[in-house]
Structures are given as structure tokens and as C-alpha cells.
Specification:
This protein is of the alpha+beta class. The protein contains 4 helices and 9 strands. Strand 2 and strand 3 form a beta hairpin. The protein is elongated, with a radius of gyration of 31 Å.
Length: 209
């Protein structure tokens, strides 16, 4: 029997009902804390770790402040990925017949080197932004960026030069004839979510590749 003053009046039992409620509430609270800590490893397993991101998670890049001629480098799947903002003059030169005649694969016939949704000539979704994996297709060196006219001789149109064995590529990553590199530089899968933001590692459907 419980008296009006909140005390159990059974013989031998003097437990205060208010204290009992406090102990029950405290036990519930501590149980909740324990459940949260127990769930953290499980929830963390759903989140991409830094290691997983380095291994291949897509990379989003804001290009809004890039100027014509500027180059940026980001890492995707452990590889350097170049982003070049080409000028309107660069784009015109890429399409000239005399320039195309100097290239081994001017129309990107080796389909493995670029996604099918990029233009075969300028090898981009938006022609002012060129995106390439910065690894030479000969023996894996990283070419240097040589964007200026005549920088490598009187007829140099701007592009990339591999210092290891002398391979050269134009500003679409297409390999010139007569150099060791057999095929064009690789264009990685990518998509634009607006005019100046690109995601490296997703195709145009938004699917991670």
C-alpha cells in the first residue's frame, strides 16, 4: 500500500516512489547514450571515408574563377586530372585542317580514350573546358603544360610536352605524329551540374563511374 505522502507502507519496504522514478529515468537515459555510441561505427560504415574518396569517389570542382589559359590539377583515383580553360583562339586552331593533318588520331577514333558524350574534335562537353588525365600514354610520365604559341618551335600551337621521351599533344590532348606516345591522352568521365561546376568521376547521367 502506498500512502498519500508517496511512501510505500509495506513492512520492511521504505523505497521512496519519487526516487524510484528518478532511478528509472536515469537508467533509460544512460541506456540511450550507450545505444548512440554503439550505433556510431554502424552509421560511419555508410559514410565514404577519406581513403574511399581517394580511391575513387567523384570530385566536384568549381571552375567559375578560371581564366582562359589557366590550368588546374585535381586528384581522382590517385591520378592527376587536368582542367584547362581554353581560349576562343585555341578552339579555332584545334579545328584547322593543317593542324589536324599533324595528328595521329585527330577524330578520336580510339574510343577507349574518351567517353562517347564528348565532342570527337575538341574532346570536351563544353569546348572551353578541357579535362584530361595527366599521364602520358607512352610510359606513364606526366607531361608539362606548354600553352603558348611557338613555345616548342615555330609551328607549336600550344599543348603538352612529355619530358621523359618527347611526346607532344595538342590542347585537346591529341597526340602528334612521329612521337613515342601511341594514342591520345585520356578524357575521364565527367559531368557538369551547371555552367561552371564539374564533377570528375560521374558520367552525364549522374552515375559514378
Amino acid at each position: 500500500m502506498v500512502a498519500k505522502d508517496g511512501h510505500d507502507n509495506k513492512p520492511g519496504s521504505l523505497i521512496d516512489s519519487g526516487r524510484r522514478r528518478f532511478l528509472v529515468a536515469l537508467s533509460s537515459f544512460m541506456g540511450g547514450i550507450g545505444a548512440i555510441y554503439a550505433a556510431i561505427p554502424f552509421l560511419s560504415s555508410w559514410m565514404p571515408s577519406a581513403r574511399a574518396q581517394a580511391a575513387g569517389a567523384p570530385v566536384e570542382v568549381d571552375l567559375s574563377e578560371m581564366l582562359p589559359g589557366e590550368k588546374r590539377i585535381v586528384e581522382w583515383r590517385g591520378k592527376p586530372v587536368w582542367i584547362i580553360r581554353r581560349s576562343s583562339d585555341d578552339i579555332v586552331r584545334l579545328k584547322k585542317a593543317e593542324h589536324l593533318a599533324q595528328l595521329r588520331d585527330p577524330n578520336s577514333a580510339v574510343t577507349e580514350q574518351q567517353p562517347d558524350y564528348v565532342n570527337a574534335l575538341h574532346r570536351a562537353i563544353h569546348e572551353d573546358y578541357l579535362i584530361l588525365v595527366g599521364i602520358c600514354t607512352h610510359l606513364g610520365c606526366s607531361p608539362t603544360y606548354r600553352p603558348y604559341l611557338d613555345q616548342l618551335g615555330d609551328d607549336w600551337p600550344g599543348g603538352f610536352f612529355c619530358p621523359c621521351h618527347g611526346s607532344t599533344f595538342d590542347l585537346a590532348g591529341r597526340v602528334f605524329k612521329g612521337v613515342p606516345a601511341p594514342i591520345n591522352l585520356e578524357v575521364p568521365p565527367h559531368m557538369f551540374i551547371n555552367d561552371h561546376t564539374v564533377i570528375i568521376g560521374k558520367d552525364t547521367t549522374g552515375k559514378a563511374v
